[in-house]
Amino acid sequence: MTDELADWSTAADRLAEVATDRSGSPDAGAPDLVVRARSVAEVQTVARFATAHGIALVTRGGGSGLAGGAVAGTGSIVLDLSGLDRIVELRPADHVAIVEPGVITADLDAAAAAHGLFYAPDPGSVAISTIGGNIATNAGGLRGAKYGVTRDAVLALDVVLADGRLVHLGAGTLKDVAGYDLMSLVVGSEGTPGIVVGATLRLRPRPAVTATIAAYFASLELAAEAAVAVRSTGVQPSVLEIVDGATLGAIDRLAGSHLHERGEAFLLAQVDGTDVTAEVAVVEKALVGATEVRSSTDPAVSAELLAARRLALPAIEATGRALIEDIAVPPSRLAEAVRRVHAVAEATGTTIYVFAHAGDGNLHPIIVVDAEPGAALPAAAVDAADRLFALALELGGSVTGEHGVGLLKQRWVARQVGPDVDGLHHAIKRVLDPAGILNPGKAV
Amino acid sequence: MTDELADWSTAADRLAEVATDRSGSPDAGAPDLVVRARSVAEVQTVARFATAHGIALVTRGGGSGLAGGAVAGTGSIVLDLSGLDRIVELRPADHVAIVEPGVITADLDAAAAAHGLFYAPDPGSVAISTIGGNIATNAGGLRGAKYGVTRDAVLALDVVLADGRLVHLGAGTLKDVAGYDLMSLVVGSEGTPGIVVGATLRLRPRPAVTATIAAYFASLELAAEAAVAVRSTGVQPSVLEIVDGATLGAIDRLAGSHLHERGEAFLLAQVDGTDVTAEVAVVEKALVGATEVRSSTDPAVSAELLAARRLALPAIEATGRALIEDIAVPPSRLAEAVRRVHAVAEATGTTIYVFAHAGDGNLHPIIVVDAEPGAALPAAAVDAADRLFALALELGGSVTGEHGVGLLKQRWVARQVGPDVDGLHHAIKRVLDPAGILNPGKAV
């Protein structure tokens, strides 16, 4: 096969580079071959070869996944799509971009900005993750409160099937009910039913003004109640985030700031539109019990107000090895969820920081452990993670809101969906990938 | 089986009532049995029976479908879910409703209103169609420009499979990437992979104010260009509609109004929010070339301005038997699409009216024919419909935006998606319904 490919390697150092992602998953061994695809035809060649020989094929983009979806494993072929990074077409009047999967998410947003448009999904990894990876995990982000997740921005996909056939899913229009929605099936499927080699994406006009509202509360319960109140005003914030006191303390230690003394919880909201004066007033009024509220439409001030959220993850990661969890609950149960996350920390003797996309009930409890990257996790951390997943299900939620299943949550997904749906997942996987070569052991 | 069911019939008059829908599909013959389900357990009983005996099972709600999705046929069992019409739970703080499939769409919206919420999808049939039917077709509506289609409001589904098993798809949270998105696969699938017996739906806070902006233009091209301009302002209208001159004439004949003399095209926009003064000004400014613009936030005036859109379909139906088509194109090609629809009318000697959801590029060309309901269609009308579908594909669109495939568009969907994807649709259908009993011959 390699005589048909322009860029491949079996060198140990190159293989080590593509063997894993940012999930901290245990080492699954080195792949046998890495192919950096230069064209869709090359992707088809590799898929046909892998199917013919029954070799596991693991597709990767930026390698920024947090659930192990791109962890390769001994004997596998890694298909690196980061070189397929062209923005093929921007159609400003339709608010549409057609891109290759290796485009960096922030680069698409920048290209859209030149036409007064933006690409709404903004996972924390925008600067390093690819559109293909965002599609594989159905990535969310801060602006999801108003603009939804990656699936809400996907209008059509070009997908190479396990047997090498290239299919086009979705009409590319905003509305389409012609046949089954296989496009949505592929979004969030971690490359297990097919390999995304092209995407037609929805852009949106950039709002004229964005206001940032930052508030501190004496307790996390009060902040969570305020978030519920904001959601019920009729104003749709584009961003609605909560950060707990422990995380504020970590930011203070990293940045030398004094955020934690201002409260035990931080709430950040943004509203965008044509003139958001009235909306800002409504949101401010809903922040009952806040000890401090600041609002601004000045980008410099907004950036300053955003810092307490933007620094949350780096500050936590500065304290130790961070296991980034990702549970979703009904928004009204956010306060209860955070309270019980803290109880899990106490019961297991672990350190757990929490920040949350309060607008859509998606929490990131971060378990910090005293263990080197790649080393086995302490039993207490594993126990804590299991308790967090059980908590998500007990509250009527999901064990993953936006990071995906990967290697880390197989068992929990089966438990969440139940044996019948798990069986359907595998039966559909067999239809699309009879030889089971596409990213085996992930997603389902 | 019938000893396990509370309400069933083999009476000819009752069977005739449930044999078809509002699509005007040719008569496919009377079913053998109609079961009006009283419980999920009864639905499971019927599914098991149909699978065991290889009998076609056609599920129906309000019978308001426009594509033949609920047309039964000789020898089939009709499963009528209109009696499963309870709103099981409203959770205002989460903006969630849990409903049975037979709930009338407008009734859910009214129940939500009591909590300051609304149910966004608003197909023209809201007063008679059911949530189950809306899910089966992924119904759209006027407010889709801002709030999307039915799928965007579905958070989880309870589905009875062909073999009678009950499964729950989706987590019910706003974000969930645990396993494949089978929930989206079921939405718009016309009951062919399973029977929806329950839905967890997203509600939204009712906006404080809605402004209506109505404009007339000397030509449809100008109106379509104005719609593209509005979409690019950064203001997101909740409603953005266009009505052609012929339709205005039909409304005048029905209502005794004088709309057509005001222009050859009517554009209707709504913006909703907290204070939409600035948005209205931006939209008005984008309506370049309008001969007349009126705006109001007064509900009575809004209702009057809406009349030219609200009466479009009844006015056309008053002129003869109406074949309601439903193509989607990229929004920037709307003017071209309408111009070419008119060319199709000329080439085929047919009468075609057009109105469109300009916000999302979804056109409804309405072919009016001189034939009794149920009678065979004139060859010219069939030819015109075929040319419209070909036009949709040529413009990079879809042969159905929101009405579905049903019986009427089988051939065209296969052409739109191509043989490989068509093959996948059928393979997935076989996984979920091996005996092929669920609404056979529909959707895929």
Show the helix and strand layout.
The structure is a homodimer of 444-residue chains.
Chain A: E1 8-9, H1 12-17, E2 33-36, H2 40-53, E3 57-60, E4 77-80, E5 87-91, E6 96-99, H3 105-113, E7 117-118, H4 131-137, H5 144-147, E8 154-160, E9 166-169, H6 182-186, E10 195-202, E11 204-205, E12 209-217, H7 220-231, E13 239-244, H8 245-255, E14 265-273, H9 277-286, E15 290-296, H10 299-310, H11 312-317, E16 321-324, E17 327-328, H12 334-348, E18 351-357, E19 362-369, H13 379-394, H14 410-432
Parallel strand pairs in A: 2-4, 3-4
Antiparallel strand pairs in A: 1-2, 5-6, 6-10, 7-11, 8-9, 8-10, 12-14, 12-15, 13-14, 13-18, 16-19, 17-19, 18-19
Cofactor (chains A, B): FAD
Keywords (chains A, B): FAD, Flavoprotein, Oxidoreductase
Family (chains A, B): Belongs to the FAD-binding oxidoreductase/transferase type 4 family.
